[in-house]
Amino acid sequence: MFAAGARPNDGIRIVEALTSKGHTTLIDRMWKATAVLAVSLATTQVAFAQDKAQVERGMKVYTEQKCSVCHSIAGKGNAKGALDDVGSTLMPEEIRAWLVNPVEMTKKTKADRKPPMRAFPNLAKEDLDGLVAYLSTLKKK
After folding, report:
1. Which residue, among 96, 93, 86, 90, has the nearest Cα to 139 in the 3D structure?
2. Which domains does the chain have, with CATH numbers?
3. Torsions phi, psi of 124, nearest 5?
4. 139: CB partners within 8 A, 6+ apart
5. Which of 22, 94, 132, 138 has the most Cβ atoms closer than 10 angstroms to its Cβ?
């Protein structure tokens, strides 16, 4: 398990020797890097949980607002308005614009779908954010 002639506490002795001889900057950097990595991982986990909650809220809003009357996802709903790849084709801010101001987006993109999409200006911010988060996940694989 140990190199020839090595003893179990040699690693501790090496660290002690380095820190006592002015090599603390290397050890300090290693500890700081470890701390930054740990904080990053924790932050990522929290962000993932928040994203997941937002996406779930968006799925609920999609159902509550009866979006499937005009749109479909995974073959469920109106096939004329398939959203299966909307997350690949539109940025989140564009999805938001379609939800809040579809008349302007229709002109901007020269879309000709009938009937025109209705606006959702009165959705609560959390619902709108959730719907945008959910639709942004829809990407063909």
Report:
1. 86
2. 16-136 (1.10.760.10)
3. -60, 150
4. 85, 87, 88
5. 132
Q: Give the position of tokens 């398990």.
A: 1
Res 36: pLDDT: 64
> At which residue do the structure tokens 């993109």 appear?
109
Q: What is the pLDDT of residues 25-76, one digit of tens each?
A: 666 777 676 766 666 655 555 445 458 999 999 999 999 999 999 999 999 9
Distances (CA, A) of 20 to 13, 24, 25: 10, 8, 11
Number of C-alpha atoms within 13 angstroms, CB side, residue 121? 4
Which residues, in sequence order, are bridge partners of residue 77? 72
